[in-house]
Specification:
Elements lengths: L1 E5 L8 E4 L14 E10 L1 H7 L13 E2 L3 E9 L11 E4 L2 E2 L4 H4 L12 E3 L3 E2 L6 E4 L4 E4 L10 H17 L10 E5 L3 H12 L3 E6 L6 H8 L3 E4 L5 H8 L2 E6 L6 H8 E9 L13 H10 L3 E4 L5 H17 L10 E4 L4 H10 L6 E4 L9 E2 L4 E2 L4
The structure holds beta-D-glucopyranose and zinc ion.
Length: about 375
């Protein structure tokens, strides 16, 4: 089968690779689920992997199939699978279990292992391909009614984790009821974090550099958030006018803004850091003041990465909520479809240099593509 792959460590090495079609018996005890991929989104992580700044090939391979924002349909199940039926729409988690105690209880997103496994990112092939086989533990069902937008579920799960963790941490306060939040960054994760907070009734001020109006600011305002360009007002100043911020979600990819967010956080507040920042940027900060205000204000700062199935399930629920409350909003994020795995160049070019890109994704197969599984051979062979 076809796969979009890179040679990790070699710049701009994206190419079309060929891999054997996976078979159900790759998973022991009849627990395999064979899924045909329908769509797969790309993001900054894929950009970094193709720029040779990130990403590791699986053992025994010199290439890595990229793509982690997956969406597909079950084609076949092992004899011991009760959770799914052929025809079910599904999304799979990204990380796989390591050896720490956190991995053992299903919270592999919290692993303390140095080496971690992420499909499409690190040591495991990803989803920009035709099929995958995996264990039901890592696969989450998607209602048919969400199939048009479910390719956004993986990034939504990442945003969910940050916010659910923030609420979990704030149980320390016994009566915490966040009223005002700031979301710094209005890319996909910033938009999705804003959605989650709006669905919970929180007032959101969203920040980004670009002055409004443009698609992202319109999307923020469409769900009732206030959009502020940091060219007009700094996050620090906005906290005086629109705060105090009980929660700040940072998702710009620009590390220095973190320290400004620390200053903008209200008393007893929680600051969630979600940007995976490469490089070694340095910055000078008012250390004593930030520290003092954190101490006197009992503030918390937490980093967040990835998401386990709990957060994918939350993402699916919130997608359904979003469709009820803001019909059509999620679909507006899917700005740049690219047809077929063969157009991998166009996919990467759209991601790196496209205009007004919120989500670029590959349409691998039609959403109602017929099943291709051959029960005789136990593998899916026919091509659409
Ligand atoms: C992915 C996460 C992953 C993180 C770090 C993000 O782009 O969505 O699943 O954990 O990159 O590799
Ligand atoms: Zn990602």
């Amino acid at each position: 089968m076809k796969a979009i792959a890179v040679y990790p460590g070699r710049k701009d090495s994206v190419h079309l690779a060929d891999l054997p079609t996976p078979s159900l018996d790759e998973i022991a005890h009849g627990r395999g689920v064979l899924v045909r991929l329908l769509r797969c989104g790309v993001d900054g992580t894929d950009k970094e992997i193709n720029a040779a700044e990130y990403g590791v090939a699986p053992d025994g391979f010199d290439f890595l199939t990229i793509g982690h924002e997956n969406f597909g349909r079950v084609e076949a199940i092992g004899s011991n699978v009760t959770e799914f039926s052929p025809g079910d729409y599904v999304v799979a988690t990204v990380r796989r279990k390591g050896s720490s105690i956190y991995d053992q209880i299903g919270t592999y997103d919290m692993t303390t292992d140095e080496v971690y496994f992420e499909r499409g990112v690190s040591r495991r092939h990803g989803y920009l391909t035709e099929y995958y086989v995996d264990h039901p533990e890592y696969i989450v069902k998607v209602p048919d009614g969400l199939r048009d937008i479910a390719v956004i579920a993986e990034p939504l799960s990442v945003a969910e984790k940050g916010i659910i963790q923030a609420y979990e941490i704030q149980r320390r306060l016994k009566v915490w009821q966040p009223r005002k939040a700031a979301v710094v960054g209005s890319g996909t994760i910033g938009l999705l974090a804003t959605l989650i907070l709006r669905l919970r009734g929180v007032e959101v001020t969203a920040f980004a550099r670009t002055p409004k109006p443009y698609l992202n600011s319109e999307l923020m305002e469409a769900i009732g958030a206030r959009y502020v360009s940091t060219r007009d007002m700094s996050v620090r100043d906005a906290a005086q006018t629109f705060g105090p911020f009980d929660l700040i979600y940072e998702a710009t990819g620009f590390a220095p803004i973190v320290f400004e967010a620390m200053e903008a956080l209200g008393k007893n507040g929680v600051l969630v850091l979600a940007s995976v920042t490469g490089g070694d940027q340095m910055v000078e900060v008012p250390a004593a003041r930030i520290n003092l205000e954190f101490v006197l204000g009992n503030k918390v700062m937490v980093g967040t990465v990835n998401g386990n199935r709990e957060y994918f399930e939350a993402a699916i629920r919130d997608l359904a909520m979003a469709e009820a409350q803001y019909p059509g909003w999620a679909a507006r994020l899917l700005t740049h479809p690219v047809q077929g795995l063969d157009n991998y160049r166009q996919l990467i070019e759209t991601l790196t240099s496209g205009n007004n890109v919120i989500k670029a994704y590959c349409e691998i197969a039609p959403l109602d593509a017929p099943a291709t599984f051959d029960p005789g051979t136990g593998v899916a062979t026919a091509r659409a």
